[in-house]
Amino acid sequence: MQWRALVLGLVLLRLGLHGVLWLVFGLGPSMGFYQRFPLSFGFQRLRGSDGPASPASGPAGRPGTPGGPSGPSWLQPQVPGAAAGRRRAPRRPGPDVCGPGHWGYVLGGRGRGRDEYEKRYSGAFPPQLRAQMRDLARGMFVFGYDNYMAHAFPEDELNPIHCRGRGPDRGDPSNLNINDVLGNYSLTLVDALDTLAIMGNSSEFQKAVKLVINTVSFDKDSTVQVFEATIRVLGSLLSAHRIITDSKQPFGDMTIKDYDNELLHMAHDLAVRLLPAFENTKTGIPYPRVNLKTGVPPDSNNETCTAGAGSLLVEFGILSRLLGDSTFEWVARRAVKALWNLRSNDTGLLGNVVNIQTGHWVGKQSGLGAGLDSFYEYLLKSYILFGEKEDLEMFNAAYKSIQNYLRRGREACNEGEGDPPLYVNVNMFSGQLMNTWIDSLQAFFPGLQVLIGDVEDAICLHAFYYAIWKRYGALPERYNWQLQAPDVFFYPLRPELVESTYLLYQATRNPFYLHVGMDILQSLEKHTKVKCGYATLHHVIDKSTEDRMESFFLSETCKYLYLTTLLLVLLASLLVAGRGGVPARWPRGPTTGSCGRRGLPHRAVRPVGSAAESLAGILPGSRGLFDEENPVHKSGTRYMFTTEGHIISVDEHLRESPWKEFFSEEGGQDQVGKSGHRPRPHELKVINSSSNCNRVPDERRYSLPLKSVYMRQIDQMVGLI
């Protein structure tokens, strides 16, 4: 009997030792980092000698086919019932969720050496290096702006290779890639106004405003896209007007002598010229294009994308409330509701292209990139600005459908087995996978997840896009995750990844994201800087360039590299920044037509209590990725960025709506649930918030945000290693 007891004791001792090592040395859940040991206790399913492996997809597979012959689990069809059960409600943290175990503070990392990821990314970011990066970001803007003014103004854009200006393509009206955007109204100058103010250049800001007032006119025979004119031009005019008339003048003296609301009048003039797009449509969804002189062209297309038609409410709503005229907000809100009521009864998803006369879905793809991105962004931003609860209700319902049908991969970002989370393109009616590519506009979505408190998921998705950036030094317009290769090769200097990077830095305060920002800055300097500015990459592999510098490079990409707003997603406030401060950008390229660009809100929602309460406060404090002393961060004013990155102060004046009851009466059918259910106040909470912590502990700031094993897994899945 004694020998039996001895054997039993040894077995129990070994099991106990296994359990201790599992819990203490990073093999268990929520540890925040990964420990490498020479010992093996039968846990090889998570990782092999080369890195991570999921149960269904080992690290070794055919070239170009991640995860082996069967491919990644993203290919597997989603089971709506199971997805709904898994993602229906926020995961409730245990009692120690905010303790050292949650944030990866385990024995100070004893028991192993730092791996290559920790050596590169963890630890403090030296102040001297941060100052260098801030100056580099500022210099990038100055170089592009000065060359535009010297070689291109008053034309719309700069051709940075040949040092000359670019306007509408009068010889080829079908060239929508150019004509949708360029209206012969000095677009780059207008779009960059608030960036000048944020960087504190009062003399140039005042000079630029006077130039716009004296030289820009919208009485032009130009046919432009309603969406692009709204987010780039109308939004910038409203932003600059608010900066000039702000009694606090947080950026320095940006006032204009004898200013008589000229920019507001110009915004009104432009919006009136865009209004014909909303006329003579049977659904209330606007035509995609108008001629600024004559209205909707006789041969106008009856098809438009969801983001293009449904991402006008922020700018139109601001204009209405500044003028006291409900017309603009009413038409934009009617379009949003019309699109919302066309969503699938089965999945709750929307398609990406719709016929404005019949309401028939021409494009049935539902995803987070081009054609849909900024639609989701502006549902939430509109609520933040205007306080209309139905906007928040629509957003929460949309986010739930996204989680149920678009999300693939393992349930948790930083624990468990399987492929990392990814959001795929599916059929809006069935939820079935439609293709195996994602586009660069979708890189805004991690920032949106930060805003709603889903930080852990945001960390994983951002890591996937950053891995693609590391491989190519840019983001290809489309990337095929099954083939591990680009489908569309160009990169037009988009801001989406930068935007999500600074939002995640504000949520985690992790220096990893400063390193990411530095990588992006240095890549842009190395691969896109040319004689007179920064050029579009024609091909992300051979780094050949195109002679075009789009206006959003100055209004968004440079701005987001220079600044970041403080989004402590774990506090009871939020700051908004558009997915560029920007939402969906129109797809640009031979394979896609004009459709909305994505724009993402950047702000943080308190995951405790109702979303209405959480979103009611906009956090005044902010920090930059490389400029923490900027007035945006220290003035005490609450700010939000539009989808084009234009800064708007958030105040009670914008929440005053004398026509609110009129909107409610016009709404008719309940806009959220087709069954007529309207969530009660306590139900208005952000869907799928993954953390209820009140702060980000200091311990995690100097650990990797994602365990090394998962970073390595993602790098393998994009062919980086």
Automatic annotation (TrEMBL):
Major localization listed first in the record, in broad terms: endoplasmic reticulum
Domain of life: Eukaryota
Record-linked Gene3D superfamilies: 1.50.10.10
SUPFAM superfamilies with a match to the protein in the record: Seven-hairpin glycosidases
EC number assigned by the record: 3.2.1.-
Top EC class, one word: hydrolase
Single GO MF descriptor: mannosyl-oligosaccharide 1,2-alpha-mannosidase activity
InterPro entries the record matches: 6hp_glycosidase-like_sf (IPR012341), EDEM1/2/3 (IPR044674), Glyco_hydro_47 (IPR001382), Seven-hairpin_glycosidases (IPR036026)
Active-site residues, Swiss-Prot/TrEMBL: 228 (proton donor), 373, 477 (proton donor), 496
Composition bias, Low complexity: 49-63
Regions that span the bilayer: 560-578
Pfam families, per database record: Glyco_hydro_47 (PF01532)
Subcellular location field: Endoplasmic reticulum membrane
Membrane topology, record value: Single-pass type II membrane protein
Sections of the chain in a coiled coil: none
GO CC, any one term: endoplasmic reticulum quality control compartment
Key words, A-Z: Endoplasmic reticulum, Glycoprotein, Glycosidase, Hydrolase, Membrane, Signal-anchor, Transmembrane, Transmembrane helix, Unfolded protein response
Region (Disordered) location: 48-97
A GO BP annotation: positive regulation of retrograde protein transport, ER to cytosol
Recorded family membership: Belongs to the glycosyl hydrolase 47 family.
UniProt function note: Extracts misfolded glycoproteins, but not glycoproteins undergoing productive folding, from the calnexin cycle. It is directly involved in endoplasmic reticulum-associated degradation (ERAD) and targets misfolded glycoproteins for degradation in an N-glycan-independent manner, probably by forming a complex with SEL1L. It has low mannosidase activity, catalyzing mannose trimming from Man8GlcNAc2 to Man7GlcNAc2.
Protein name as it appears in the record: alpha-1,2-Mannosidase
